[in-house]
Q: What sequence folds into this?
């Protein structure tokens, strides 16, 4: 599991570098698709000084199988998402400013830009409120996430999911940028939401028609 633990160590540093969270807040995980084992960050550890040995490993049923540290209090959130979403192998939970503006006003973020439509999806919902670290928070988040690639946690922050850590960072960046655009655009007019049909066309285009091949 060393390879997957190192992914988390590097991603934790990246999260701080990108100002997605402050101090020890937020948490990350990856799943090894072969064994189904899930590597989660420890609770309240400094991302800058964390090493692979600090990480905590769970099996697919949520039993802890390795680790010297206490796991993140949101471990159930991570484990439950993996159980519901076979397409997901990386998750980050952060507290970025503009997305959290929507989380505290308990509003979702719809597809208003083509990059959001292509990379994130049709709409990101805000989950019902629950206290941090509870099973309820995990259940509400999984329900509101559905088949999308991100969800907002009420009065709290965001959760982004994807097939690998690199994609999840991309989703997180675009979600945050879109939240910022949505707030700014409301100041000068009415942002238009891209239709479900157009979102589908753009996603298909990204898969088949974009880039060098
Ligand atoms: Zn949090």
A:
């Amino acid at each position: 599991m060393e390879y997957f633990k190192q992914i988390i160590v590097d991603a934790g540093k990246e999260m701080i570098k990108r100002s997605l969270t402050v101090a020890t807040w937020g948490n990350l995980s990856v799943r090894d698709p072969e064994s189904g084992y899930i590597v989660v960050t420890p609770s309240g550890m400094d991302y800058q000084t964390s090493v692979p040995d600090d990480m905590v490993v769970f099996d697919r049923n949520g039993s802890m199988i390795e680790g010297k540290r206490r796991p993140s209090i949101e471990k159930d959130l991570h484990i439950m998402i993996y159980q519901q979403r076979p397409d997901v192998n990386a998750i980050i939970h952060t507290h970025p400013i503009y997305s959290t503006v929507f989380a505290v006003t308990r509003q979702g973020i719809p597809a208003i830009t083509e990059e959001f439509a292509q990379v994130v999806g049709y709409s990101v919902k805000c989950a019902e409120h629950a206290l941090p670290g509870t099973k309820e928070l995990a259940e509400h988040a999984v329900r509101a996430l559905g088949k999308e690639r991100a969800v907002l946690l009420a009065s709290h922050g965001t959760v982004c999911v994807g097939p690998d850590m690199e994609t999840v960072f991309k989703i997180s960046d675009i979600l945050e940028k879109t939240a910022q655009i949505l707030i700014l655009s409301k100041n000068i007019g009415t942002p238009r939401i891209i239709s479900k049909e157009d979102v589908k066309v753009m996603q298909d285009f990204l898969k088949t028609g974009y880039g060098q091949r």
Summary: The longest helix spans residues 165-188. The CA atoms of residues 116 and 174 lie 6 Å apart.
